[in-house]
Amino acid sequence: MAADPDDEGARASFRRGARLAVPFAIVGFVLSLSFGVLARRAGLSAGQTIAAAAIMFAGSAQFAMLSVVAGGGGVAAAISAAGLMNARFLAMGVAIAPSLPGGPLRRAAQGQSVIDASWALANRGDGTFDRWLLFGNTAPQYLTWTLGTVVGAVFGDTLGDTDRLGLDAIYPTFFLALLLGELRDPASRWAAVGGGLLALALVPVAPPGVPILAASAVALVGLVRRSA
Amino acid sequence: MTLSYAEVWLVIVGCAVLTVLIKACGPVLLGGRTLPATFTRVVTLMAPTLLCALVVTSVLAEGGSWSVGAQTGGVAVAGVMLWRRLPLVLCVLVAVLVTAGIRAVA
Q1: Between chains, do B27 and A111 touch, taking CB under 8 Å as contact?
Q2: Does A1 have pLDDT greater than 50?
Q3: Which single residue of A41, A60, A170, B32 has CA 20 to 30 Å from A144?
Q4: Cβ neighbours of residue B84 under 8 Å, at least 6 residues apart?
Q5: What DSSP character marks residue A97?
Q6: Tell me, what DSSP letter sits at residue B62?
Q7: Which tens digit of pLDDT belongs to each residue from A38-79?
Q8: Res. A2: pLDDT tops 50
Q9: What pLDDT is stored for residue A86 in this prediction?
Q10: Is residue A185 domain-resident?
Q11: What is the Cα–Cα distance from A141 to A138, expressed in whole angstroms?
């Protein structure tokens, strides 16, 4: 087995993915630390905070869920906010499906390793994905994501007045970086502008979480806009 | 927060199950199949739409009203740096320092 050239290629891809993951894993650690601190302050227990990060492992969905919960929203609103935030994984799953071998269960299990950064980096640009690069890229990010949340949830109190630390700037900056990577064509740019404006317009009149959900409706322009 | 301890667990488990199902959808149902281009276009546009809504609501709103805070300045500076293709870790560090700096002097 060790001499199998496919195995060698897989190992090389895995290592390459892990190397490329370093900056994302570092930022992920601090970001999930801030999630841990904010979740504890919102009233979640340490166990709940760590469980949320370890079993959801989806930053934007976790923060969306947290902002609905912290803002006084209900169970259904919190879950749908997280679900809609994760809706982009539908598209990523569709794109990567042909690159994942095995039966439906095995493909579903491999699909769990898709996160924004790993999906983008594993994309070969010719319609196929390097799945071992995907796994290698996601693994360290999962590790630091969970560790960061443990540190934030357990030691967050000792950080003192976290409001003054500027941790709340990490989350928007991380997603701004992902957003800039999404603005490849005019349709994406206009959808982003439309979604941002609609969400802002709804902030004063809609319950927490709803502006972000409603913004996703802007993506429906994809139905009518047929770019030549 | 108005939810009880048990309700928070319900939210967490519900979110986790939904995340697993969403990630499994494509690989299970659409392995080796091609989708209508319009469907793919809509789902593809959801990423920039949601990410932008997420960024602007966390930077320009507080609770139920528009607001500009210290983190608005920090993220704005980082945004320019990201746009100039500076490393992510550096941009995040600057965002945190600028935000903390504004709070220290404000």
Answers
A1: yes
A2: no
A3: A41
A4: none
A5: G
A6: E
A7: 899 889 999 999 999 999 999 889 988 998 898 888 999 899
A8: no
A9: 85
A10: no
A11: 5
B106 to chain A nearest CA, in Å? 11
Q: How far apart are CA B47 and CA A214, in angstroms?
A: 13
Instruction: Give CA A118 to chain center in angstroms.
Output: 10
What total of structural domains would you count in chain A? 1
Contact A182, B51 (CB under 8 A): yes
Closest residue by Cα to residue A34 from A164, A160, A170, A157: A170
Residues in chain B with CB shorter than 8 Å from the CB of A159 are none
Range of the domain at A49: 5-160
Which chain B residues are within 8 Å of A86, Cβ to Cβ?
Answer: 18-19, 22-23
Q: Residue for token digits 């139920």?
A: B64
Of the pLDDT bands very low, low, confident and very high (cuts 50, 70, 90), residue A228 is: very low
Interface test with A, best of B25, B28, B52, B83 (most A CBs within 10 A): B52
Tokens 């979480």 — which residue?
A209
Model pLDDT, residue B94: 96
Query: CA-CA distance, A141 to A127, in Å (whole number)?
Result: 24
Can you give the residue ranges of every domain in chain B?
A: 68-106
Residue A123 φ then ψ, to 5°: -70, 115
Instruction: Say if A175 falls within a structural domain.
Output: no
Of B15, B31, B71, the CB nearest to A97: B31
Q: Are A86 and A58 in contact (CB under 8 A)?
A: yes
Chain B residue with the nearest C-alpha to that of A97? B27
